[in-house]
Write a structure and sequence with these properties.
Elements lengths: L4 E11 L2 E12 L3 E5 L6 H8 L7 E6 L2 E2 L4 H5 L2 E4 L11 H12 L11 H7 L12 H12 L6 E5 L7 H18 L2 E6 L2 H5 L3 E6 L2 E6 L1 H4 L18 E12 L2 E12 L3 E6 L5 H8 L7 E6 L2 E2 L4 H4 L3 E4 L11 H11 L4 H14 L15 H13 L5 E5 L7 H16 L3 E5 L3 H4 L4 E6 L2 E6 L3 H4 L6 H9 L4
Parallel strand pairs: 3-8, 3-9, 6-7, 7-8, 13-18, 13-19, 16-17, 17-18
Antiparallel strand pairs: 1-2, 1-4, 4-5, 9-10, 11-12, 11-14, 14-15, 19-20
Helix pairs in contact: 3-5, 4-5, 11-12, 11-13, 12-13, 13-14
């Protein structure tokens, strides 16, 4: 085994009857950016957690720059950094306090001008006194990356580092990673279900069911890329399900939503886009009757936004980007719980639950515990929970966050089928490919809507190569 590489031989790891890794062998060269690509449950996270010494393998071995994975765990921890997929921060500490905590762990001084830390710290410095819990998703991930760099790691591992964050923050993080690799020779391992993150790598591997399928250039690993623009479904009409005029929300002197106006037609899939902190979530909370507008008017399913906010709740469904259902209940029990909240009687509830399970393709798995099912399934159950009372309008907050390509397509098949039944759907997403699947799109910047309409025409006509570029042009005010 070479001291200038990460050499993995026949690694295996099981959790009960589930074989997470099955004889994995790889060699990752020092100084390269290496990608691990695979679907949910393929073994990506397990492999990285073993290499980080957070898990012990059941079998096999690994040599990390000349140190044995099992015998030299303490030494290895001195020169690695790890950014997990779930935030590794203390939410009740500020940005500065989180960083200081990590410097104390390593017994190191904090130098904000250190060449390795400075590029990411400069983006955090304006928020140094803000609690981590008050940061946007993108800023939390930047803070997690900053903390992982405190010990100037020789090997940096990231587990789905840009899940749930906007394209601007995603590019910021990718630029920092490229800089670390170029200027400091940092070896970087990225596990991800996203094409853009794998495409930046020097080499990558495809992992399926805990086994390495192939290793090579990212172009050899990734499935063929298809740009699909879905035309409007046949249910669109001139009647509006959502009408908003001058909607504003202020928190003290801060204006989170600044006089936005728009309409969404019945049966339309409307993409509500914007960077982290643009005001999307605040706007949706007002539309759902969860937050009172500071000013402005609106009608949701024909009901007045200011007067009928309690009645509105029975006409809408909301799917959060986070899994909020009890993990120790089965899929069916969770849906019964939601149906009960809407006052449905048992017989009617069971009938609607059976219908929902068929529509999301989980009718044969209703008795599985929610906490034990794959992430893609959890997102489908979340959709069923939002739709079980047959609302006129569905609000979907990043419905495919963190899921793999195949699961994403399955969820969008469900979304399009629901819109085809006449349900109005308003969806937020940071995946710009999904914007192409919406009938119309709006893009929010700093609390205001900067562009709205069928913005896919810019891709169709060749003005932009893809919707990522459309988003960048509009958010950077160059369009």
């Amino acid at each position: 085994m070479g001291i200038g590489s990460v050499c993995i031989k026949d690694l295996s790891k099981s959790f009960g009857k589930v074989k997470a890794l099955d004889g994995v062998s790889l060699e990752i060269k020092e100084g390269e950016i290496f990608g691990i690509y695979g679907s949910d449950g393929a073994g990506k996270t397990t492999l990285e957690r073993i290499l980080c010494t957070l898990l012990k393998p059941d079998g096999g071995s690994a040599d990390i720059f000349g140190f044995d994975l099992l015998k030299d765990r303490k030494e290895i921890r001195k020169f690695i950094g790890f950014v997990p997929s779930t935030f590794s921060l203390y939410m009740d500490l500020s940005v500065e306090e989180n960083i200081r905590f990590h410097t104390d762990l390593f017994g190191l001084p904090f130098d904000k001008d250190d060449g390795m830390i400075a590029p990411i710290y400069r983006q955090l410095a304006p928020f140094s006194d803000r609690l981590a819990s008050k940061l946007s998703g993108g800023m939390k991930q930047k803070l997690a990356l900053c903390c992982a760099l405190i010990n100037r790691p020789r090997l940096l591992m990231l587990d789905e580092p840009t899940t749930g964050i906007d394209t601007v923050c995603r590019k910021d993080i990718i630029d920092v990673l490229k800089l670390l690799n170029k200027d400091f020779g940092t070896t970087i391992i990225i596990s991800s279900p996203y094409r853009n993150e794998i495409k930046m790598c020097d080499r990558a591997t495809l992992i399926e069911n805990g086994r390495i399928v192939r290793v090579g250039d990212p172009s050899e690993i990734l499935p063929p890329e298809e740009v699909t623009i879905c035309d409007a479904n046949g249910q669109l009409c001139d009647d509006n399900a959502i009408e908003v005029s001058g909607l504003t929300k202020c928190f003290g002197s801060f204006t989170a939503v600044d006089g936005i106006s728009f309409n969404v037609r019945k049966g339309e899939i409307f993409g509500f886009l914007g960077a982290n902190g643009a005001g999307k979530t605040t706007a949706i909370r007002m539309l759902c009757g969860l937050s009172e507008p500071t000013s402005g008017t609106g009608r949701i399913a024909g009901l007045d936004l200011n007067r009928d906010y309690e009645k509105i709740k029975s006409h809408i469904g909301y799917m959060s980007q986070r899994d909020c259902l009890p993990p120790d209940l089965t899929i069916r029990e969770n849906l019964r719980l939601i149906a009960g909240m809407y006052g449905m009687r048992r017989k009617e509830a069971d009938r609607r639950i059976d219908d929902c399970l068929v529509r999301v393709g989980l009718e044969n798995y209703a008795d599985r515990m929610f906490g034990s099912i794959p992430l893609g399934w959890k997102r489908r159950v979340g959709f069923a929970a939002a739709a079980v009372h047959r609302p006129e309008i569905l609000f979907l907050d990043e419905p495919t966050s963190g899921v793999d390509v195949e699961a994403r397509k399955q969820i969008w098949d469900i979304i399009r089928a629901e819109a085809g039944r006449g349900t109005t759907i308003m969806v937020t997403t940071h995946n710009m490919e999904e914007a192409l699947w919406c009938d119309r799109q709006s893009i929010m910047v700093d609390g205001s809507i900067k562009a709205m309409g069928d913005l896919r025409s810019l891709v169709r006509t060749g003005v932009s190569p893809d919707f990522d570029d459309v988003f960048d042009l509009i958010t950077q005010a160059n369009l």
